[in-house]
Amino acid sequence: MKEQKVKILENAPIAAGIYKMRFALSEKTDGLFCGKFVNISVGDGAHLLRRPIAICEHGEENGVQAVTICYQVKGAGTQAMSRAKVGDELACVLPLGNGFRLSEEQKRVALIGGGVGIFPMLSVLKEYAGAGKDFYSYIGFRNRDAVCMADTFFSLSARAEIVTDDGSFGQKNNNAVAAFFADYEKARPDVVLACGPTPMLRALKTGLKERGIAVPCYVSLEERMGCGIGACLVCVCKKSGKEENARVCKDGPVFEIGEVEI
After folding, report:
1. Domain check: are 216 and 113 in the same one?
2. β-strand pairing of 51-61 with 37-40
3. 16 vs 222, residue with greater confidence
4. Is residue 255 situated within a structural domain?
5. Where does the chain have alpha helices with state H?
6. Same domain, yes or no: 44 and 20
């Protein structure tokens, strides 16, 4: 984990209310991996708290490490971030949290993403491209205007299903989880990875239990965070069957689905 200045290489909308930001790191940084996140300033002095955003992609460009994040413009902070220009510098702490790790034996991988939860799933596709995995992706959006990165899911997945609440793109279905269960016999995954709104993850947990599916399942939780390093306890969640909490930023954001209450 390092705190450093990063220089914006790209910051532009890719769908309604969704921006893609790519930035260059000022220092060599180890430990970048799918499922981890950054805590990044928004570019003005009015919003002191940084925003926790999942790493979407990372790599090297012209000898410099670069990281891509995608974020939804919701409040004043992310609105300020969307106004940042190419060449601007932002303060950033990275990488934070744990991530999604696939074992050699896990060949068939189901990815379930909803809303901005698709971006951690995209990071898994990018991280393990060419590693001999077959990905079965089930991705949900509100409507056609919200759809982004669909081509990447189609090109890097053995099978990809895009659903929208209103049916304006792909199948009409208000839940990527339902699309996954409808297709389960075809996918037959060795492991399930998911990220999205709490109701979506709750439906996944309930559905797996009701169907007696014992496949390992790991979820990335989306929570409001303050410090991003486990000190402020803003992002705690309750552990299943225990009188103790887990810190999403420090102990997660990726958990085994039975480990935490959703």
Report:
1. yes
2. antiparallel
3. 16
4. no
5. 76-82, 118-127, 150-156, 176-182, 184-187, 198-210, 248-251
6. yes
Spatial contact of 156 and 125, defined as CB atoms under 8 Å apart: yes
**pTM listed for this prediction:** 0.96
Claim to verify: residue 118 and residue 74 sit in the same structural domain: no
Indicate the number of domains in the chain.
Answer: 2
Rounded Cα distance between 78 and 127, Å, is 26
Q: Is 18 in the same domain as 92?
A: yes
Split at pLDDT 50, 70, 90, the class of 232 is confident
Nearest partner of 211 among 194, 188, 241, judged by Cα: 188
Shared domain check, 136 and 87: no
How many Å apart are CA 207 and CA 74, to the nearest integer? 30
pLDDT in tens, 10-43: 999 999 999 999 999 999 999 999 999 999 999 8
pLDDT on residue 43: 84
pLDDT at 228: 83
Residues 13 and 88 placed together within one structural domain of the fold = yes
pLDDT above 90: residue 117: yes
* Eight-class DSSP state of 168: S
Q: Which domain holds residue 20?
A: 2-96
Q: In terms of domains, do 65 and 129 share one?
A: no
CA 111 to CA 131: how far, in whole Å?
16
DSSP state of 260: B
Radius of gyration over every alpha carbon of the chain, rounded to an integer in angstroms: 18
What is the residue-wise DSSP string for 96-137?
ES------TT--EEEEEEEGGGHHHHHHHHHHTTTSS-EEEE
**CA dihedral in degrees (30, 154, 200, 33; nearest 10)?**
0
User: What is the domain-level CATH number for residue 39?
Assistant: 2.40.30.10
- CA–CA dist 247, 231 (Å, integer): 9
Q: For the chain, what is the mean pLDDT?
A: 94
